[in-house]
Amino acid sequence: MKKYLVIAICILVTACSSNDSDNVSQSNAPSGALIKVEVFNLISDITSKLTYSFDSRGRIASLNQKIFLTDETRNTTVTYSYNSNGQIVRHASTYEGNDEITEYVFNIDLITSSTRYHNNGSIYRRNYSYNNIDQLIRESILNENNIETASKEYTYTNNGNIENTYQENDGSFIEYTFEYDNKNNPANTLYNNQEISKIIGYNYNNKTKRVYSTNNGTNVYTLEYTYNDAGYPLTSNEYLGGELVTQSTFTYQD
User: Fold this and answer.
1) What pLDDT, on the 0 to 100 scale, is given for residue 157?
2) What angle do CA 173, 143, 122 make, to 5 degrees?
3) Which residues in the chain come in under a pLDDT of 70?
4) Beta-strand runs (E) in 108-242
5) Domains of the chain, first to last
6) Burial of 54 (0-12, 13-18, 19+ CB in 10 A)
7) CA separation for the pair 81, 87 (Å, rounded)
8) What does the pLDDT read at residue 99?
9) pLDDT tens digits, residue range 175-194?
10) CA distances from 89 to 67, 102, 114, 160 (A)
């Protein structure tokens, strides 16, 4: 059975300041901002395209993901809302008739919890803990009764990239270990100075190695890039055991 290529997307939403939704366009993107990512999965023969739109202040306002299958195209749309401090506090997503809203709660300048509402009535909560330099170090995943069902822990490299994540759930675990280049991460043009960047796993640099471990074993992925003059990736190739598995291209605003 084919595994669909999915680009992980985190979503946000809360009543706050205007989203400038009356003037949302890709043309509002600041010069150098990431505006499109295309990914081709050689294993599943599936292409995914992710495009970003911006409000009149040049902030990310929405994203749209299209997954091109053999006989259909699947669409996901995410819209973002900001508070009076210019922080993303909420996002709403729509996928194949499924709607979700995720709201973030701040304590001073840090996101301490989130609540995700699904249109089927399901509610999911997460709590976040930080170290003394405001790095996210633990994520607690709660059920509808506010009982912890899983947890995720983070460690970091000296320059602030995520080095390791370890998630445990009822005796099962998922662990990632990463290595990086010294170039700019494209997400820097979208989520720089946004607290949500910690929640979605933003890193300053680009992953060159990803070790994925579970109870069933370990897979090691390696990544190679080409870059533009500003040090941002233009293309990437991802390999598993020496076999090319995904190819990506990145497009930036002129």
Assistant:
1) 98
2) 120
3) 1-22
4) 110-118, 123-130, 136-142, 148-156, 162-169, 172-180, 207-214, 217-227, 233-240
5) 21-252 (2.40.160.190)
6) buried
7) 8
8) 94
9) 999 999 999 999 999 998 99
10) 27, 8, 9, 23
